[in-house]
Write a structure and sequence with these properties.
Helix content: 25-40%
Strand order of the largest sheet: 1-4-8-5-9-19
Oligomer: single chain
Keywords: Hydrolase, Metal-binding, Metalloprotease, Protease
Number of helices: 14
Protein name: Peptidase M20 dimerisation domain-containing protein
Radius of gyration: 23 Å
Family: Belongs to the peptidase M20A family.
Shape: globular
Domain Peptidase M20 dimerisation: 210-368
Bound molecules: the ligand NCC(=O)N[C@@H](Cc1c[nH]cn1)C(=O)O, zinc ion
């Protein structure tokens, strides 16, 4: 069953309205990782709830409790659950997305204000969260608006789960999903899950995604003196926390991306020729990567190695050092306490449970080798397991048909390098098939400066998600 032409025309006609609504969403600074914006994330949860209620969805807020940040209790933003339709003759589709965003400041290098959606003449909609993940969440809203205003029944029963902590470890969400998946819970009867929260590999070819890497995120704290010191007065007299930290961080990963923590890299199988062929066939080139990152700095010139680096290998990244001097000028200080941040993206069979003890043991051994009198502590921040789905399921068939119908192209089947920890929880708690059907392109710059979503991806992506619902109804009676 193809999506009705009236739906596709409606999406085209309403394009400017949809973009204005995206602009309203982007304007709410729902940064989950920074406590000062927590009220904005909560405001965003109300905005989302009101918007979905207005198009006929029964919505509720689900309290996720509190989190402790630096000794202080902080309210978690409530999750928004929605439902529409309960026809036993239809499939029930659960969609997941998030309304929180990564931090963004103009001074990070943005060309425009990150929380003001800038509509460029070339069709780019620039603003934090435009692609990750407010645009895709609003894509579902656009579809529901058509059915509500035109008094058309949806081809499936619709359920949604939107959260405001995805960029910060999805605190509290696993427990909620497990609860709501039980008989009588909000997700009872769900037949499949669709997540739109990732990207094409390039700027041409749509993708359907059947895997995500997991994640384990650490804080490495080194402290010594009671306060910051004058480096002229105390340099070469004391063990410097920053020197210790840099020594430790330099032993985690080498410049070729090899993880130096014993047994982490070699927990993963080596791809055989048949598997390498899957990566060879992807519409993905070194030039695509270079254009997305804005430089020619890939670790290899072999496309398969680079693609596998993102999709089927673990990676360790050093993110930053809290407490280090980073301003302009030349402050001659010895920081008293520094906190290194690093994370490892995980692939099967790796999980935080089997990787974290290896990291802890290694850090302790390496710190002991330094002979430092400073104190060193490793803290696990948050994490999630990797996920790989079953592409032979009708859910994937529906997404493939929808992609062909809207884009006239065969989608690339990808595994994503990013992490959405709740994906595996949906798959396991509900026991149903899960897929990712992204809206944005590979050069959207999610998490980066000048994040954008192309107008055509927002509009055609809305059609894609809507068509997918019709294809489910057609295939899976
Ligand atoms: N679009 C998915 C995404 O960006 N996920 C984040 C999740 C995360 C975990 N910790 C911080 N963010 C990702 O980085 O993959
Ligand atoms: Zn996201
Ligand atoms: Zn993200």
């Amino acid at each position: 069953m193809a999506a009705p032409k009236e739906f596709l025309d409606f999406v085209d006609t309403k394009a400017d309205f949809f973009i204005q609504r995206l602009s309203d969403a982007v304007a709410i600074k729902s940064v989950s990782g920074d406590p000062q914006y927590r009220s904005k994330v909560i405001e965003m949860s109300h905005w989302i709830k009101d918007q979905f209620s207005a198009v006929g969805v029964e919505t509720v807020h689900r309290d996720l409790g509190k989190q402790t940040v630096e000794g202080k209790e902080l309210q978690l933003p409530p999750a928004v659950l929605g439902r529409l339709g309960n026809d036993p003759g239809k499939k029930t589709v659960l969609v997941y997305g998030h309304f929180d965003v990564q931090p963004a400041n103009r001074s990070d290098g943005w060309d425009t204000e990150p929380f003001e959606l800038t509509v460029k003449e070339n069709g780019q909609l620039i603003g934090r969260g435009s692609s990750d993940d407010k645009g895709p969440v609003l894509g579902w809203l656009n579809i529901l608006q058509y059915h509500h205003e035109q008094k058309k029944e949806l081809p499936v029963n619709f359920r949604c789960c939107f959260e405001g902590m995805e960029e910060s470890g999805s605190e509290g969400l696993d427990a909620l999903v497990e609860r709501e998946s039980k008989p009588g819970g909000w997700f009872e009867g769900v037949d499949c899950v669709c997540i739109s929260d990732n990207y094409w590999l390039n700027t041409r070819t749509p993708v359907i995604t059947y895997g995500l890497r997991g994640l384990t995120y650490f804080k490495l704290i080194v402290e010594g003196p009671a306060r910051d010191l004058h480096s002229g007065v105390f340099g070469r007299m004391v063990h410097e926390p920053m020197t210790d930290l840099i020594a430790l961080m330099s032993k985690l990963v080498d410049v070729k991306g090899n993880i130096l923590i014993p047994d982490v890299d070699n927990m993963v199988s080596i791809a055989d020729d048949k598997e390498r062929e899957l990566y060879e066939r992807l519409d993905y080139s070194i030039a695509d990567v270079e254009s997305a990152i804005g430089s020619s700095t890939t670790l290899s010139s072999d496309k398969v190695e680079v693609a596998m680096g993102r999709m089927r290998m673990p990676s360790l990244s050093l993110h930053g050092i809290e407490g280090a001097f980073y301003g302009t000028g030349a402050k001659t200080v010895i920081p008293a306490k520094v906190i290194g941040k690093f994370s490892i993206r995980l692939v099967p069979p790796q999980t935080p449970d089997n990787i974290n003890p290896l990291v802890e043991k290694y850090i302790n051994e390496e710190f002991a080798k330094l002979g430092s009198k400073n104190k060193c502590k490793l803290e696990f921040e948050h994490g999630g397991k990797p996920w790989v789905g079953d592409i032979s399921h009708w859910n994937y068939e529906a997404a493939q048909r929808a992609t062909r119908a809207v884009y006239g192209k065969e989608p690339d089947m990808t595994r994503e390098g990013g992490s959405i920890p709740v994906t595996l929880t949906f798959a396991e708690s509900l026991g149903v098939n899960v897929l990712l059907l992204p809206m944005g392109r590979g050069d959207d710059g999610a998490h980066s400066t000048n994040e954008k979503l192309d107008r055509s991806n927002f509009i055609e992506g809305t059609k894609l998600l809507g068509t997918y619902l019709y294809e489910i109804a057609a295939i899976a009676k």
